[in-house]
Amino acid sequence: MAPPSLRQRRRAAATQEILDAAERHIAEHGPVALSLRAVARSLQMTVQALYHYFPSRDALVTALVTKAYDDLTDAVQAAVDNAPDGSDLPGLVIAAEGYRSWAIAHPEHFQLLYGTPLRDYAAPAEGSTTQATRRMSVIFERELFDGFTAEQLAAADAPALSPSLAAYLDQLPHFGMGHLPPPATALFLSAWGHLHGLVVLEVFGHTVFLGDHQAEIYRMAMRNLLEDTRRRIPS
After folding, report:
1. What is the pLDDT of residue 224?
2. How many whole angstroms separate alpha carbon 18 and alpha carbon 118?
3. Is the pLDDT score of 212 beyond 90?
4. pLDDT of residue 6
5. For residue 43, what are the CA distances in angstroms to 40, 46, 112, 233?
6. Which residue of 31, 115, 198, 215 has the lowest C-beta tally within 10 Å?
7. What are the two backbone dihedrals, phi and then psi, of residue 55, each rounded to the nearest 5 degrees?
């Protein structure tokens, strides 16, 4: 492939500069205060000039959300990849703690992903934000179900699913281990809600009463979550 032209390199550099400025604005003022005018002003450019790189507020928000998901996913994968040799922590617990650590270190960006939806914004269907979330889903799906066969997952002891829910879960796309049977998908969604929900409570300040013990409580919860999920899958 031909190397990028000078024009392309300048455009890429300007685009990155805008994204960096928007991230700083979010870190200082929160996601709901995101303003194209303020971002442009911080770069000493006009809003009209900014539109040459991001044709709308939604385009900029989509780029920011995608980058935040990518950064979060990279942090989760790095936690798994860099686990100390001989660690007795299961991979799911390590991945979950990588997720929690990133969220605590980047609360405003975590709120951009999982806080109050930005007014009048809708992520594009099957767009870059969807692809970014799937990357992270693959990691957790692998760490939760690695080592089990499709037959074992199909026989998982999930609560009785209604026919309509089972049919709906059966047609959901999967991008980790391939197609998951409905019982395994139900277990995965339940585990995700628990894993993510505890982080949301902490990031939004609802578990501050635990003080310095929040990390220990989270690790205990993730160990219990993993043990309970795997106990439901026949050996």
Report:
1. 97
2. 19
3. yes
4. 85
5. 5, 9, 22, 55
6. 215
7. -65, -10
Name the residue with higher pLDDT: 89 or 121: 89
Within 10 angstroms of residue 61's Cβ, the number of other Cβ atoms is: 21
15 φ, ψ (degrees, to nearest 5)? -60, -45
Amino acid of residue 207: T
Q: What is the CATH number of domain 1-55?
A: 1.10.10
pLDDT tens-digit series, residues 214-231: 999 999 999 999 999 999
Q: Tell me if the domain spanning 65-231 has CATH number 1.20.1250.20.
A: no
Q: Which residues contact 79 (CB under 8 A, 6 or more apart)?
A: 94, 95, 97, 98, 101
Let me know if 122 is exposed, middle or buried by CB neighbors in 10 A (0-12, 13-18, 19+): exposed
| Spatial CB neighbours of 70, under 8 Å, sequence gap ≥ 6 | 132, 135
Mind listing the pLDDT tens digit for each residue in 188-205? Answer: 999 999 999 999 999 999
For residues 76 and 139, what is the distance between their CA atoms, to the nearest angstrom? Answer: 8
Delimit the domains of the chain by residue range: 1-55, 65-231
Residue 90: closest CA among 76, 77, 80: 80
